[in-house]
Amino acid sequence: MATVFVVSFLAATDSASAQRRTRNRAAADLGPQVKEINKWIRTAWSDYEIKPSPPATDGEWCRRLFLDVVGRTPTVKELDGFVKDSSPDKRRDLVRKLLYDDEYTEEYARNWTTIWTNILIGRSGGTERNTMISRPGMQKYLRDTFARNKPYDRMVHELVTATGSTAPGADDFNGAANFLVMKVNEEKATLATAATAKIFLGLQVQCTQCHDHPFNEWKQSKFWQMNAFFRQVRAQRIGMRGSNTGRLVDADFRLFQKLDDDVVAVVVDVDQYV
User: Fold this and answer.
1) Reduced to 3 states, what is the DSSP secondary structure of residue 233?
2) What are the boundaries of each domain within the chain?
3) Which of 152, 200, 220, 248 is in Cβ range 3.0-4.6 Å of 267 for a Cys bridge?
4) Which of 182, 190, 187 is nearest to 229 (CA)?
5) What b/e sequence results for 90-129 when a residue is b if at least 16 CB atoms lie within 10 Å of its CB, and e otherwise?
């Protein structure tokens, strides 16, 4: 997961350096991923006739990095040490330090847990009355994911194929189930399809559920092909002692197992369909 951010931030580093020697050294060492990102950034500048801002100073760059990676500004000691460092690789070294040093693991995990929780279930997800989403469950899953530095593809796979209960404390708890539990029942699981495409593919496909859009490469048939995966599961809501309990079951609607009194939602394994 950290690697995704390394590529993105080092791309910005190339254009933001305030020292010519650092810029030249960084440009020579850029990998193919960073060069590709820089190419698209410059293409966008040209297409929209944007004049880039002047390069950020070391102090400005350091502040932006800390805010983006660990969600806070650098301390006086951290900022002063970076500004006084004369190494041409100091920016790259600081990126790697924030991403990989044990000193920052907890801050990194906490910051990106907040960001991804809001992306996956919304800012109010898990706070609505009678919802099957457990916000603490979603946060626990993500915090563990980032602390362990799981690869991005593994995280996505776990989110779209999750099995288990959404609520912490359940025997089969799996916080990843919170992503889809409130999206598969509504309107033939179109919410699950649209959210997955938007978040993980960067595509706005909700309009294509009704018709082929002239400016969207995704056609209506492709939307429903992807949707077929999500329509094979259901979140079953069951009221119990004033609370709601839910369970995602596969297409054959297999018999429910005995439910606890907790507010949970359980996802049946859909790995076989993905």
Assistant:
1) strand
2) 2-100, 128-273
3) 248
4) 190
5) bbbebbeebbeeeebbeebbbbbbeebbeebbeeebbeee
Identify which of 30-34, 51-55, 205-209, 243-247 has the greatest average pLDDT: 51-55
The token duo for 235 is 């979140």
Burial degree of 244 (CB within 10 A; 0-12, 13-18, 19+): middle
Long-range contacts (CB closer than 8 Å, 24 or more residues apart) made by 41-50: 41/11, 41/15
- pLDDT of residue 212 exceeding 90, the answer is no
Mean pLDDT of 105-121: 95
- Look at residue 60 in the predicted model and tell me its pLDDT: 98
AA identity, residue 198: K
Alpha helices in the chain (DSSP H): 2-16, 20-29, 32-47, 58-70, 76-84, 90-100, 105-121, 135-147, 152-160, 190-201, 220-230
CB 268 within 8 A of CB 184: no
User: 163 is written with which tokens?
Assistant: 């099995």
For 214-227, how does the pLDDT look when each residue is reduced to its tens digit (9 = 90+)? 777 778 888 888 88
Is the pLDDT at 210 greater than 60? The verdict is yes
Q: How far apart are CA 7 and CA 13, in angstroms?
A: 10
Please give the Cα distance from 248 to 4 (Å, whole number).
31
Residue 235 · residue 162 · CB < 8 Å: no
Rounded to 10 deg, the angle between the 190-201 and 220-230 helix axes is 110
Res 52: pLDDT: 93
Beta bridge partner(s), residue 248: 235, 267
Q: Which helix (H) or strand (E) holds 215?
A: none
Report whether pLDDT(91) > 60. yes
b/e 136-161 (16+ beta carbons within 10 angstroms → b): ebbbbbbbebbeeebeeeebbebbbb
Contact status, residue 156 vs residue 148, Cβ threshold 8 Å: no
